[in-house]
Automatic annotation (TrEMBL):
Keywords: Membrane, Transmembrane, Transmembrane helix. It comes from Reyranella humidisoli. Pfam families: NrsF (PF06532). This is DUF1109 family protein. The chain crosses the membrane at residues 24-43, 63-81, 93-111, 123-145, 157-177, 189-209. The lineage of its organism: Bacteria, Pseudomonadati, Pseudomonadota, Alphaproteobacteria, Hyphomicrobiales. Coiled coil: none annotated.
Amino acid sequence: MKTEQLVASLVADRAQTSFPLGRAVVRAVALGALVSLAIFALGFGPRVDLAAAFATWRFDLKLLLVLAALVAASGACIALARPLSSGTWRRGVVPVVLIAVVGLASELLLAPPGSWATRLVGSNALVCLTAIPIFALAPLAALLLALRRAAPASPALAGAASGALAAAAAATLYAFHCFDDSPLFVLTWYSLAAIPVILVGAALGHRLLRW
C-alpha cells in the first residue's frame, strides 16, 4: 500500500469513528476557560472603569484584536490537528494583521511622539507576562487532551496551534483586567506573553500527539 493510500485510509477511518474535531476544540477551550475564569475572579477581577473603557476606541480595538486572534487560532488548531490540512486556515490571520496595522497606525498618528515610549511600556507589563500564561494553562491542557484523539500530520505544529489558541483565549480574558489599551502595549506585551505558551504547546504536542 502506498503512503498516500495509507493516509487516505486513516483519514477515512478517523472520520467514521471520532467525534467532530471542531466541536472537541470548542469544548476544550470552553472547559479550560472556566478554570481560567475562576482564577481571574479570585486573583484579578475586571478593571474598575470597564464601563467607561467600552466607550474608547483603544479598548474596543484591543478586544477586536484578541477576538480576531481567537478565531484565527481556532481555525489553525482545527486544521493542523488533521492528518491532511489545506492551509486555508492562514486566511484567518489576515484580519488579525489588518486590525493590528490599523490600530498601530492610528496610535502613531493620534498620540504625541513623546508619549510613544510610555504607552509601549504601560503600567502592567509584568502582570501581562505572567497572567496570560497562567490563564492559558487550563485551556492548553484541555486542548492537548482533546487532540490526543486526532491524528495531526505534525504533532509539534498541532501543539503550537493549541498553545496559540490557549494564549488567545487567555488574552481575551486578561484584556478585561488590563488598564493598558494602547496598541503599542497590546501588540508588544500580549505577543511576548503568548510565545512561551506556544513553545510549551509545541513541545508537549510533539510528545503527546504522536500517532
